[in-house]
Amino acid sequence: MIELLLAVFVLEIGLLGVAGFYFYSLQITKTARNETIASNLAAGFLDEELAQNFDNLVVGPPGNPTDLESPFNNFQKQIDIAYIDSATLTPSYTQTEANQYMKKITVTVFWPYETGERSFQIATIKAKH
Amino acid sequence: MKNPKSPPSPRLRRASKKSKAFTLVEILTVVFLGTVIIMAGYSVYQMSYQSYQKNSKNAELTQNARIALERMSREIRQSLEILPPPLPENPGAGTPPSTITFQDGHVIVPTQPPLPTNCEIQYVTYYLSGNELHRKITFYTLTGYDECVLWSAENAQEQVYRDQIKAEKISSLQFWGINTITIHLTASDNSSSFQFETKVYPRNI
User: What ipTM was predicted for this assembly?
Assistant: First the structure.
């Protein structure tokens, strides 16, 4: 009887493990979908910045991430614009002789994931001329 | 001394007979545990099947939306002109249309029949028909000339070159914006619905 109970117990552990795997696969699909949404949103925000005049791109440290409007309430965006030296490719918030003609635009989109959050980041460079 | 070959006593015979069979309690326990195991196995199988179905549907929906959005973004980004009517600046400024027509910025020349020999000017229309996203290529010609002209040319006649389905399960599509065009689409099937959005800055306009 004890042998039988032990066998059932071990089998149940195995079955629970298999069931857990399927829940995990559902979670992966959800993550993949959120990454697709985030990458499209990030590409859109980047294009929105690129559409602006070079001088209108405000350089400075990024503030806190801002919430997006419905139906993307779960997502947040953060935009970081810095001068970039064409020779060393070093970004800086301070304008110098060497970096004044190019700006690096970095867009990050965040979304909640389990207890923390995940993010998708995309960057490009805009030249003055 | 006992003879080892002598037959066992009736008492011993009864005892050995008894030990060869299962009791009713043992059989019931085994049947009960067996049922539990089969039910657990079946529920795991059912769960895995449902999970597979749900995953497949979600992945297909996401894939459809991704293909549609990337294809439209790429072509609008390279387009040379967005044809009227003008898009509203935002959804609050008017009903965003579910169709967009623009001059194709990726035309390969020289072109093959049935297109005219010189057909650098072609137009692409994305529109929804039911739940299917269509991509239609049109061109404009003038009678007696073997070349394509602008849509705005006098007496230009529109002709459809190709109309193909590019994505399925797209339940809604909207375009708005002036300098930067927003594409908003909803991919849905019987059980799920997801919304996707991106913005495109047409470089060549």
Answer: 0.81
